[in-house]
Amino acid sequence: MSTPDEELVARSMGGDVESFNQLVIRWERPIFALAYRVIGREEDARDVVQETFLRAFRSIGGFRGQAKFSSWIYRIALNLCRDWIRKQKRTPVLQAPEGVDVIELAADTGPTEPIEDLVARNAMSAVVARVMETLPDEQRTAIILKEYQGLTFQEIADLQGCPLSTVKTRLYQGLMVVRRELEKQGIPVRPATRTTGWPASGGERRKPS
Amino acid sequence: MNEDRSCPSKEALVSALYGEASLDQRHDLDRHLDACAACRDEYESMASVRLALQEWSAPVLPVHFRLVAEPDPVAGPGAAILAGPTRWWQARRVMAAGLAAAAVLVLGASAGLANLDVTIGAQGLTVRTGRAREAGRAVPATGAEPAAAGQDPIGLAGPAAQAGASPADWRAEFAALERRLRDEMDDRVASSAAGPTAQLASTRAAGQDLLRQVQALIDAAELRQQRNLAQRVTELAREFDVQRRTDLVTIQQGLGQLEGRTQAEAARTRELMNLMVRTSGGTLPR
Fold this sequence. Notes:
The complex is a heterodimer.
Chain A: H1 5-13, H2 17-39, H3 42-58, H4 69-88, H5 102-105, H6 115-133, H7 137-148, H8 153-160, H9 164-184
Helix pairs in contact in A: 1-2, 2-3, 2-4, 2-7, 3-4, 7-9, 8-9
Chain B: H1 10-17, H2 23-35, H3 37-53, E1 66-69, E2 80-83, H4 92-114, E3 117-121, E4 124-128, H5 130-142, H6 159-163, H7 167-191, H8 194-280
Helix pairs in contact in B: 2-3, 4-8
C-alpha cells in the first residue's frame, strides 16, 4: 500500500526531499493534464507543472492540512495557469495538430486499434479541444476539474471561490454550450440512454499505484 | 424544460449526472425522467456531451521531474532545484550566480580583448591600451613610429605630451613614467602586510569557484540541448513513421477502389461477352 499524501507532506515539511519527490511522481500527471487543458500548450503546461512543484516545495511549511494536498496543489497550479493566461493576454491556443496527433499516433507501444479509428479519435479530440476554447474561463475550468480531474463539487467550489450551486450552474451551462458547439461542428449530440451509463469523471486523477 | 414546477432543477440534474445526488434524490429523478420526456432528453443529452468530452486526450507527460537537494548558504536549508526539461523556471538562485559570473567573464574578456593596463600612481588613474603598450615595447627593437593618436595612453599629462614633443622625447618620458609607476606599485605591494596578499588569494579562489560554476552551467545547458535534440529527432522519426503508415492506408484504400473498379469493369466485359455469345449462338470458353 502506498504512503498517504499526508504522511509524505509531513516528511517533506521536515526537509525530506525524497518524500516530496514521491508526491511529485504521484501528482505530476494530473497537474500536467489540468495545465494542458487549461492553457492548451504542452510546453507551457510542462513549465507550469515544474513551477507548481517548486512553489509547493518552497511553501510546504505553510501547508496546514485543512485541505487535502491535492486541493492545495491544484490551487497553486490553477493560479499559475491564470497568471500564464493573463501574461499571454489571449485565448488559449491548442497545440493539437490538425486532425492527427502524430506523437500519440506513433506511440512506442503501437496502436491497438485500426489507424482509421485512431485518426478519427484524434480528430474528435481536436474538435472537443476547440469547442472547450469557446467556453468562458469559469465554465471551462469547472468542467475540466470535474470531468478530467474528478474533483467534487465542493472541492471545485473551494478552488473557484464560489458557492456550490454556482459550480453546478457553471457545469450545466458549460455542458449546454459544448453541446451547441459540437452540433455547430456537425457532430450531433444524440441523447444517450440512461441504461448505458456514462464514464466516471476524473480519469486523470487516479493515483499511480 | 425544467419550466414545470415538478421538473427538477438544473443543479439537481447536474448532481445526478455526476453521481453526487443522494439515493433519494436519484430515485425521485429517475421516476421523473420516466414520466417527463423533455427532462429525459435534456439529461441524456448532457450524458452524451460527457461522452464526447472523454475524447479530449491530454499528452502523456514524458519526463518525471525530481527535486534535487542543494545546500546553499544563501537560500538556507530547504533550497532545492527541480531537475527535468527546463525553460523559464530555471533555478533563479543559480541564475543570479550565473549572471554575476557572466558579468565577471564579460569584464574579464573585455579587458583581455582590449588588453588594458590600468595603473594608479601620483599622476592619478592611468589606462593604457594593449596596442599602445605593444607599440611602446616594440620601440627599442624596431625603432618604429609611436602609436597613433587613437592608441595613445589615456590620462598621460606629462610636459612632453602636452607640448607636442618629438617621438623620442615622448617615448623616453613614457618609459620613465611607466618605471616610476611600476616602482611605486611594487613598493606599495611590498610594504603592505600579508593581509592584502591573502585577500588577493581568496579573490582568486572565488574567481576559480565562479568559473567552475559557469562551466557547470554551460555543461548543463549543453546536456539539455542534447536531450532536446534527441527528443526532436525521435519525434521526427515518429512523425515520419506515422506519415508512412497513413500513406500506406491511403494507398491501400486507393488500391481497393481500383480493384473494385477493375472487378466492375471485368464484370461488364463478361456480361458483354455473354451477350455476344448468346446472340451468336456459340458457347462461352471457360
